[in-house]
Automatic annotation (TrEMBL):
UniProt KW keywords: Isomerase
Gene Ontology cellular component terms for the protein in this record: box H/ACA snoRNP complex
Protein name as annotated: Uncharacterized protein
GO molecular-function terms, A-Z: pseudouridine synthase activity; RNA binding
Residue ranges, compositional bias (Basic residues): 489-498
Keyword Heme: no
Length: 507
């Protein structure tokens, strides 16, 4: 028996070693068992290396997987080059002499686009990372910033520890007034410094370098002056560099103006898009830290037109969403549709089947990127058919040809209901309770009680009288001669009256 088993093993080894021909399919099927074995383990999809908003897509909470995929739109990285440029941003290392506005204008001219923006201005002599995008510039401007600054103290300090202590005091909410040379109104305001760290200090030259993380709109020049005041020696800022703006840092694909010029030259003259795609990044890269909600393809265009984000259109949603939190609504391909303010928490979304999930803050996607999918229901289709047949007017309102069944069955929820007509209360009508209260006030001597309605009536009567007098003057225009005679008569009457008064006084 042992010899037979050894022979079988040898035969099997020969079969594996020999190359199998396409015609010899029968021997291949006999050599192995081609069947799917039952297993309790579900196949895992590794999305940890997926780009941008689709990263860790499998870890999102699933509301439903049932939707109709549409062939419209595309992944942010696979967009057409013109669309890619329009919906992108550049993490730019700004040169230190020109201002931020000048640099943005140059980029606009180089890339030949309609709009450019930046995520915060600084002085012309400051090197800074700016992001070029117009739709998300507000959210980037309000995000935190990080700086590295070089300062100089006017006199020597006892020790480096004193400088560290002074920096530690300049944390939290601080009063700041912009410097004399600044682009904003010099008003006292409060700005928060989250963290600061002394990186280096040279005692021989009284110069130091520190890193600071602060709120948008903080003035580091003012902070250096305050540091000098705290130490009692005076101080000023020499150099400043912004190392983080929002979520973009110095290490996140930073480019220079020369890189932008070279990339555009390669695209225009050699039709090479690779460098331009490396310099410009999709705007979804700015929204990586936002909580996500994935929408169905059929509801995307409605959101672009301003519709509410309702729960039936949601496919997946992230953990930890809170009410009034800023979130991003995106497609199944990873495109950002809009920024929104959450109206439901994650727990509410899991337990409800209807309701408003979020309200739109800023729409990012262009309209009609995806097809319209509203107005295709039975009522809407019947309404369109009646409009085409002339039984409703072009706005969908009833006319003389409208069938009675439609008038009774159709309810227009968009039509404004007429306000209920309230009969005006007469001016002289006063409730008995108010009357007794007014009498009590007058008796107690607390002050005269005036009825506003009576005053209003008097004013109306005066206006009417003035109006009548004006109309009479217009109807009976007198000649200039008659007017002069009337004025002379009036003057004579006045003189007579004055004489009579003088005589009476003498008597």
């Amino acid at each position: 028996m042992a010899e037979v088993e050894i022979k079988r093993e040898k035969k099997k080894k020969r079969i594996k070693e020999e190359p199998i021909d396409d015609d010899d399919v029968g021997t291949l099927q006999k050599s192995a068992n081609f069947t799917l074995k039952p297993s309790a383990k579900a196949a895992k999809l590794d999305t940890s290396k997926w780009p941008l908003l689709l990263k860790n897509f499998d870890k999102l909470n699933v509301r439903t997987n049932h939707y109709t995929p549409l062939p419209h739109g595309s992944s942010p990285l696979n967009r057409d080059i013109k669309e890619y440029i329009k919906s992108g941003f550049i993490n730019l290392d700004k040169p230190s002499n020109p201002s931020s506005h000048e640099v943005v204008a140059w980029i606009k001219r180089i890339l030949k686009v309609d709009k450019t923006g930046h995520s915060g201005t600084l002085d012309p002599k400051v090197t800074v990372c700016i992001d070029r995008t117009t739709r998300l510039v507000k959210s980037q401007q309000s995000a935190g910033k990080e700086y590295v600054a070089i300062f100089k103290l006017h006199s020597p300090v006892e020790s480096v520890s004193k400088v560290r202590q002074g920096l530690e005091k300049l944390r939290g909410a601080l009063f700041q007034r912009p410097p004399l040379i600044s682009a904003v109104k010099r008003q006292l305001r409060v700005r928060t410094v989250y963290d600061s760290k002394l990186l280096d200090y040279d005692e021989s030259r009284n110069m130091g370098v520190f890193w600071v993380s602060c709120e948008a709109g903080s003035y580091i020049r003012t902070m250096c002056v305050h540091l000098g005041l705290i130490l009692g020696v005076g101080g000023q800022m020499l150099e400043l560099r912004r190392v983080r703006s929002g979520i973009q840092t110095e290490r996140d694909n930073i480019v220079t103006m020369h890189d932008v010029l070279d990339a555009m030259y390669l695209y225009e003259n050699h039709k090479d898009e690779s460098m331009l795609r490396r310099v410009i990044r999709p705007l979804e890269g700015l929204l990586i830290n936002h909580k996500r909600i994935i929408m169905k393809d059929s509801s995307i265009n409605a959101v672009c037109y301003g519709a509410k984000i309702m729960l039936p259109g949601v496919l997946r949603y992230e953990d930890g969403i809170e009410i009034d939190q800023e979130i991003v609504i995106c497609t199944t391909k990873g495109e950002a549709i809009c920024l929104a303010i959450a109206q439901m928490t994650t727990a509410t979304m899991a337990s409800c089947d209807h309701g408003v999930v979020a309200k739109i803050k800023r729409v990012i996607m262009e309209r009609d990127t995806y097809p319209r999918k509203w107005g295709l229901g039975p009522k809407a289709s019947a309404k369109k058919a009646l409009i085409a047949a002339g039984k409703l007017d072009k706005y969908g309102r009833a006319n003389e040809n409208t069938p009675k069944e439609w008038l009774t069955s159709f309810v227009d929820y968009n039509a404004k209901k007429p306000a209920a007509i309230v009969a005006p209360q007469a001016a002289w009508e006063i409730h008995p309770q108010e009357e007794t209260r007014k009498r009590k006030l007058s008796v107690s001597g607390q002050g005269d009680v005036t009825i506003t309605t009576a005053i209003a009536d008097e004013n109306c009567e005066r206006k009417k009288k003035k109006h009548k007098v004006d109309e009479e003057e217009v109807k009976d225009p007198t000649t200039p001669q008659a007017a002069d005679e009337n004025t002379k008569k009036e003057k004579k009457k006045k003189r007579k009256k004055d004489k009579d008064r003088e005589l009476n006084e003498v008597e």
